[in-house]
Design goal:
alpha+beta; Beta-Lactamase; Alpha-Beta Plaits; elongated
């Protein structure tokens, strides 16, 4: 039998092995062994690309067949997670050839004196034939045949048959991916409430969960876009952002399309994450946008909870320092643009430490909550009450003149002074000091505004506490 016939027979046996189960990686050893014995080489191996960039490459020596154990490189540490950079010109030239789908037929003695020649000689290689493995249009790795006994020069017929073996390997890897995706999606469907969706640009149809959605075609031939049919299921506030997101993804196509929307289900609105990828034809025109929609109600509840925690003080439930900073900048800009008044109260408890030391921190927490209730009764809906420190609070008063702000401060101060918390061990009373400042020309930043209010608060403390002091 001719060498080509022997190779074809090996190819058939390897194809039979790869056709069983998922093919890759379980049954690839049979293909490598058949190719190795048919060609008489010392070693058949596979490199898998782990990380590819413009200037570097990391690939791993994932499997091999050897004619003898002495040819094995599987236990050589330098072969695993092997990295090469563009500075290694000889090897980088080969990498560029592999990216273009070209094979390399090398006799090591013919190579110039360089790193690649020394590297291969260190492995005992006299000749080598390598093929890039392309999977779904992307360079996945390398199939290589090393001969450590001969300076073998390959015939065109042999290379053609081996290319067919590489194609079988590529198909096996792709089939394995599809099987893995199918298993993953089956698991996903079991553990999540999800459905598949697909929009066919050519046929102008939408499928949900494998069922075509009615596009509203009439007997006269007029039809509503199936996108509009689908959008009718979405919350009105989500329709335009969803369309804009789809168009932006089609224009840019970066990564995977992801968008959160609310859709009507059994009379209520349900949050879902729409995930999809775009397929184009040879001319770059959109052909299909398809993916899955996941029920994310639980995630949305958690996000809302986290967002609330990020904005509010956990003890009192009012705005925290971060929210205060944001709101103060907002109202300063608004007052600057509109030319309106804006006042700020900084409030600090007098001798709060004594309350904690005497009654305990639980009573101290109760005092803070009671104070917040008093402030809420004295403030308008547009006013902003925030806890900006342990026992330090701030109140933003949009549109309030200096006189109006002082009146608000005095009303809160008097309500606190008149309050007594009745406990089994006795009554708890407390007072507060307040610094008040109204925006003027020098308050061009939030820090400057807060600084003047803080100075007024310091004066209130210095003047004997339990008072309101107007700042400059």
């Amino acid at each position: 039998m001719s060498q080509t016939g022997i190779l074809l027979q090996a190819l058939a046996k390897g194809a039979e092995a790869l056709s069983h189960g998922s093919g890759w990686p379980e049954n690839v050893d049979t293909l490598l062994a058949e190719l190795g014995r048919a060609t008489g080489v010392s070693r058949v191996w596979i490199f898998q690309n782990m990380e590819v960039s413009e200037n570097s490459l990391i690939h791993d020596y994932v499997t091999e067949w050897t004619a003898s154990p002495r040819y094995s490189l599987g236990d050589v540490p330098s072969m695993h997670m092997f990295q090469v950079d563009a500075e290694n010109r000889e090897y980088w030239k080969i990498i560029q050839e592999r990216k273009r789908g070209e094979h390399q037929d090398l006799v090591i003695a013919d190579l110039p004196d360089c790193w690649l020649r020394a590297f291969l000689q260190e492995q005992g290689v006299l000749s080598m034939l390598t093929f890039p493995v392309m999977v779904d249009g992307q360079w996945w790795g390398v199939l290589g045949l090393d001969d450590c006994e001969r300076e073998k020069r390959w015939e065109e017929e042999e290379i053609s048959v081996l290319r067919a073996a590489v194609c079988m390997l590529s198909n096996s890897i792709l089939r394995s991916r599809l099987h893995a995706h199918a298993r993953q999606f089956a698991i996903l469907q079991r553990i999540t409430d999800s459905l598949t969706w697909e929009y066919d640009f050519i046929r102008n149809r939408i499928w949900l969960g494998g069922h075509s959605v009615n596009t509203g075609r009439t007997a006269t031939g007029n039809s509503h876009s199936p996108v509009r049919t689908l959008l009718h299921m979405f919350h009105p506030e989500d329709r335009r952002p969803f369309l804009q997101g789809v168009q932006q993804y089609i224009d840019n196509e970066q990564g995977t399309f992801r968008h959160d929307i609310r859709f009507r289900r059994k009379g209520s609105w349900v949050w879902a994450e729409v995930i999809g990828t775009l397929e184009r034809d040879d001319k770059g025109r959109p052909v299909q946008l398809a993916g899955i929609a996941l029920d994310i109600r639980r995630r949305k509840r958690e996000e809302m909870h986290l967002a609330r925690e990020a904005r509010l003080d956990p003890l009192t439930g009012i705005s925290n320092r971060r929210t205060f900073d944001h709101m103060l900048e907002h109202h300063l800009n608004r007052a600057e643009d509109a030319g309106g008044d804006l006042s700020l109260l900084l409030i600090d408890f007098d001798r709060f430490k004594q309350i904690n030391d005497t009654w305990g921190h639980s009573v101290g927490d109760m005092v803070l909550k009671k104070f917040v209730n008093i402030c809420s009764d004295c403030l308008r809906s547009d006013d902003v009450l925030a806890r900006i420190g342990g026992e330090e609070f701030a109140i933003i008063l949009p549109g309030a003149t200096s006189r109006a702000a002082i009146r608000v401060g005095e009303r809160i101060r008097l309500a606190v002074e008149e309050l007594n918390l009745l406990l089994e061990a006795g009554a708890v009373s407390f007072t507060i000091s307040i610094g008040c400042v109204t925006k003027n020309k020098k308050h061009d930043t939030p820090d400057a505004f807060v600084l003047d209010a803080d100075k007024a608060l310091y004066k209130a403390k210095h003047n004997g506490r339990n008072c309101v002091v107007k700042g400059d």
